[in-house]
Amino acid sequence: MERKELFEHIQKLLPLINQYYKTRSIKLTADETSLIKLVWEKGIMRTTLQTSCATCITYAMDVIYSFNEREYPKYLRSIDPEPIETIVEEIQEEFAKKEMEEQKKQDKKRKPAPRKKS
Length: 118
Description:
Layout: H1 3-23, H2 30-44, H3 54-78, H4 81-110
């Protein structure tokens, strides 16, 4: 797997990983699990990942996050400066959208019940 493709996949996983770090629980779809497995097996570790093992998946998410924190800045420096700004802006916009959606969901859950007038 090429580095560009690897980091594109990792960027798709980062909101899930951040959600896991915030809540310490996560429910993954089959597509999300297969994406984690693909990044693990074809990009980072090149070993088999047991997707039926919850501990293995959370460990893989930790390793993917750590790899991204360490290698993504190096990758960005290796490509032209103009695309870097575009990529960073796109990632920031996508992350901001996800955060806003999550905040809206939490706000809906927190709305107090209307008071009864007597």
